[in-house]
Design brief:
By secondary structure, the chain is α+β, with helices and mostly antiparallel strands. It contains six helices and 13 strands.
C-alpha cells in the first residue's frame, strides 16, 4: 500500500478539503551495490569524524549550517518543527492560472491528492469546477523541511499536484536560444514540417521503455551464467552538411513500401510449412 507523504487541508475560500498526498511517480532503475572484490562482501559506509579520528553513531549527529569557514550553527529537529509555516498542514489556493501558461521547465515532482471521507463532496466539486473552467490552481505547501509552490490540476476525476521550481532555481545558459544569426529557408521549414507530421501520433507512454536498463539486466544475467556480451558498435553521426538533402532522405525513409498480396500469401505458406515441419 502506498504511504502518505503529506496530510492536511486544501483551502479554497471558506472551503477546506481534508486530503492526503501520495507520490504519483518514482524512478525505476537497475542499482548496483559496492562490493569488496577480495571477499565478495557488500561494503558498509560509516560516519567518520576526522577531528576525533573515530567512527561516530547517528545519535551523535546534528544538523549544521555553515555561517563562516569552519563555523557552524547547530539546529535541532524540534526547533525546526516550531517554526514550520501554516502550509505544513494547510494548502491555501492563492491563484488560478491556465495550465498552458506554466512553462514545463518549472515542474518537479508529482503527487496524487486523495480526499478523506469528510471532504469527498467538496473534492469532487473542486475537480469538476476546474475541469469546466479549464484552470489549474497555485498553492503553497510545506513538507520535507521546505516550502514548495505547487500547481494543482484536474486529472482522471482527481486532483494531481506538481511541485515547481522557484525562479532562482531555474538555470540560465547564455548560449541558449542564440540563433538569430542563422537563416532557415522556407523550403527547409516545409520539408521539416512534413517530417514532423510523418512521425506524429497520439502520446502513448506504453510505447517507450528503458533500453539501457534492459541491457544492464541482460549483462547481469549473462555474467551470472558465466557468459559474456559483445559490445554493440555505436555509429558516429557527423554534422549535417546539406540540410535539404538530409530532410529529403529522412522523409524517404519514413515512407513504408506497400506490400503486395502475393508476398503476403507466400509468407503465409512459408509459415504454414514451418508449422508442419515443427
Amino acid at each position: 500500500m502506498a504511504s502518505t507523504v503529506w496530510k492536511g487541508y486544501l483551502s479554497f475560500g471558506l472551503i477546506s478539503i481534508p486530503l492526503r498526498l501520495f507520490a504519483a511517480a518514482r524512478d525505476e532503475h537497475v542499482s548496483f551495490h559496492q562490493i569488496h572484490k577480495v571477499c565478495n562482501t557488500r561494503i558498509k559506509q560509516q560516519l567518520y569524524c576526522p577531528h576525533c579520528e573515530r567512527v561516530v553513531e547517528r545519535s551523535e549527529i546534528a544538523k549544521g549550517y555553515e555561517i563562516d569557514k569552519g563555523r557552524w550553527v547547530l539546529v535541532e529537529d524540534e526547533e525546526i518543527k516550531k517554526i514550520a509555516p501554516p502550509s505544513s498542514d494547510a494548502m491555501e489556493i492563492q491563484q488560478f492560472v491556465k495550465l498552458s501558461d506554466v512553462d514545463p521547465i518549472y515542474f518537479d515532482v508529482s503527487y496524487y491528492a486523495v480526499p478523506e471521507a469528510a471532504g469527498r463532496k467538496a473534492y469532487k466539486l473542486m475537480v469538476e469546477t476546474m475541469e469546466k473552467a479549464g484552470y489549474a490552481a497555485v498553492a503553497k505547501i510545506a513538507m520535507h523541511q521546505r516550502e514548495y509552490i505547487v500547481v494543482i490540476r484536474s486529472r482522471r476525476n482527481g486532483l494531481t499536484l506538481h511541485t515547481i521550481y522557484y525562479p532562482n532555481e531555474v538555470r540560465e545558459v547564455p548560449e541558449y536560444g542564440k540563433t538569430d544569426d542563422v537563416e532557415v529557408k522556407p523550403q527547409e521549414v516545409q520539408l521539416a514540417e512534413q517530417l514532423v507530421k510523418s512521425l506524429a501520433g497520439p502520446f502513448d507512454p506504453d510505447r517507450y521503455e528503458d533500453e539501457y536498463e534492459k541491457r544492464l539486466l541482460a549483462l547481469v544475467e549473462a555474467k551470472s551464467e558465466g557468459k559474456t556480451i559483445k559490445a554493440e558498435p555505436h555509429r558516429k553521426k557527423a554534422p549535417v552538411v546539406d540540410l535539404m538533402q538530409a530532410l529529403q532522405q529522412s522523409l524517404a525513409a519514413q515512407k513504408k513500401p506497400e506490400r503486395k498480396p502475393a508476398a503476403k500469401s507466400a509468407s503465409k505458406k512459408a509459415t504454414t510449412k514451418h508449422r508442419k515441419v515443427a
